[in-house]
Structure formats: C-alpha cells, structure tokens
Amino acid sequence: MEYMVAVDRFRHFAVAADHCHVSQPTLSMQLQKAEALLGVKVFDRSKQPVVPTEIGALVLKQIKKILAENDRLQEIIEAQRDVVAGELRVGIIPTLAPYLLPLFVQRFIDQYPLVKLIVNELTTGVIVERLKAAQLDVGILVTPLQESGINEQVLFYEELMAYVSKKNAAYAKKYVLPQDIDPAKLWLLEEGHCFRSQIMHFCELRKSGTASLHFDYEAGSIETLRRMVEVNDGVTILPELATLDMTNKQLGCIRYFKHPAPMREVSMVTHRDFIKARLVASLRESILSAVPAKVKLNKSKNIVPVL
After folding, report:
1. What gap in Å lies between CA 191 and CA 200, rounded to an integer?
2. Cα dihedral angle (75, 81, 83, 86), rounded to 10 degrees?
3. CA distance 285 to 279
4. pLDDT digits (tens, 9 = 90+) for 178-195
5. pLDDT at position 9, please?
6. CA-CA distances (angstroms) from residue 133 to 11, 46, 136, 143, 150?
7. Judging by DSSP bridges, how do beta strands 115-121 and 175-176 pair with one another?
8. Among 278, 205, 306, 241, CA closest to 98
C-alpha cells in the first residue's frame, strides 16, 4: 500500500522506489502482486507520467485512509505506553527556518530520541498543499491563512522592524512610519514568499508607480536583503527572530515602527484529518520553551495580513 501511494505521489516508478528505499524491480513486483490480489489495475503504465486508472483512484483513496488509521493505531499504543516515538514530517517557511530551527531542534532530538524528525523548508503554498495530501504532518508558518480544512494554532507573535542603511534618510529617525520608507529603495523577497506580500501590504506598495524601480532585483533570503542594505543605500523589513544574532553595529541599523508595532503571527498548522497529535504537541512544547521571553510577550494588536 505504501508503494502504491508513493507511485501515485511521484508518478514515476524509479523515483517512488528511491523514496521507499527499495529497488525499482522490487517495487514493481510488489505492485503487480497487489493488483493481482485486488483483481484490478491500479495504474495505467501506458501513460507517461504513470497515472491511476479510474478504479485505481478509488482504491488509492481508500488505501490512504487505511494507512492513516494504521498510524493512528500506533499512536494510541504509544500513548498508552507513555512513549513519544515515530516519524514527524515538518514543513517550515524560509523566513522562519534559519532563525527558529536552531533554537529548538537539538533539544527536541535529545528529549525525544525515538522520534525521527524530517524537516523541509518550503513556501506556504507548498506546505498547505502537502498537508492536504498527507505528505506532511505539520507546518510552521505565518497566519492567518483562512484556508479551508487547515487548523491553525498560534505559537507566538513576531515584531517587524526596519533595517536601514546609514545612507538612507530614515536612518536619522528614532522611530519610523511606513510612509517614511521610499518604495524605490525598499529591498523585498522574490515572488512566492508570504513575507513579501505582508511587507507590500504594510507599506502599501503596488507593482506600479514609484515602486517599480525596486523590482529590478528581488532576493531569495532575508540574509541577502540584510547584506544588500549594509552595502548599498536602502531599507528592508526584518522579523524579530532574524535580529537575535546581530552584532552591535548591525543593531544600530534597526529602527522600530511607532506603537503599536506591526507583528506577524507564527503558527503550527495541521490538516483537519491529521494524526500524530502527541508528536505535534511535543514539538509545540519544544518550540515554545525555546522562543525568547520577549517574543512570547508580544501581543496580537497589529497583525500584518498575509495576502
């Protein structure tokens, strides 16, 4: 059944076999046996990429339910034995991963040696898609999403701050307002990052008018944005966790927004049919115990929407 689900996911026998850590002949043989036992063809091998047959799609839907219930059974047994064990597949967005993961991962691994933690750095859209396809157990990202079938559990609120070049007019200010930022000198992440859409909304930017000059260059990471500001004239917006390892010189380029400070809401998200509740709860506990005290005290007064 796991081999069938893998082929359905990757639509390629060799890739599915590699994912399942078996040879392609072994996977193909087991699928043929399963089809013979069921008395139906689950996959149409005449097409590339391989696709399920009409009845195969129905079979696969039921197989996924069976595998989910098997995982649920294991979780019930482990809960009764007071054991936290198993595989936990986590998706986390790129603007959180380099700052949040180092805070809790090692502690989690040490505390739960029977858990295999698999973490993938993915954009919000991909995380949601994989949660719905049962390819991830939990996502760590910025909310609110208002996505059907997705449960959100807030972890903390992260303050947004301006990072300003010494060459920029905003550097002379103690506190800044969104209108103090010149759109032509604002460095943004590339398309596909929810943090980009938040900043555009917060600064009331559009892809036209004075902002158009900026979009000639778009960075792939917050670290690149920070470096571009340091070397060139300009401004970028940083989430609070990205400032934790800054030098005193770098902290001198931070400018806070006037009260109430803009915040981004960081949450753990799961699909409504998710299992592994005990593992997810343990992960949540590890994250919250590792988040700096100041961040935990942030309030949800000025949440920047995710567009």
Report:
1. 11
2. -30
3. 10
4. 888 888 888 888 777 888
5. 87
6. 14, 25, 8, 20, 12
7. unpaired
8. 241
E strands in 193-298: 235-239, 254-257, 263-271
Give domain status of residue 302, yes or no.
no
Instruction: Give the separation between CA 99 and CA 1, rounded to whole angstroms.
Output: 38
Tokens representing 10?
């990757």
Q: What is the pTM of this model?
A: 0.75
Can you read off the two tokens belonging to residue 217?
Answer: 């260059």
CATH (domain of 66) = 1.10.10.10
Can you give the pLDDT at residue 205?
59
Q: What is the three-class DSSP state of 162?
A: strand
CATH assignment at residue 225? 3.40.190.10
At residue 197, the pLDDT reads 81
How far is the C-alpha of 235 from the C-alpha of 233, rounded, in Å? 7
Identity at 231, one-letter amino acid code: V
What is the residue range of 222's domain? Answer: 157-263
The Cβ of residue 137 has, within 10 Å, a number of other Cβ atoms equal to: 24
Is residue 119 over pLDDT 90? Answer: yes
Same domain, 170 and 90: no
Q: Extract the tokens encoding 214.
A: 């900026």
- pLDDT reading at 228 higher than 60: yes
CA–CA gap between residue 117 and residue 277 (Å, rounded):
15
276 and 254 fall within a common domain: no
pLDDT digits (tens, 9 = 90+) for 122-178: 999 999 999 988 889 999 999 999 888 899 999 999 999 999 988 888 888 888 888
Q: How far apart are CA 244 and CA 232, in angstroms?
A: 22
Q: Tell me the per-residue pLDDT of 54-72, one tens digit each, with 9 for 90 and over.
A: 998 999 989 988 888 887 7
Q: Which residue has the tokens 């009331």?
A: 204
Does residue 305 lie within any of the structural domains?
Answer: no
Q: Please calculate the CA angle 79-85-90 and round it to the nearest 5 degrees.
A: 115
Q: Which residue has the tokens 């990072």?
A: 163
Identify whether residues 135 and 203 lie together within a single domain: no
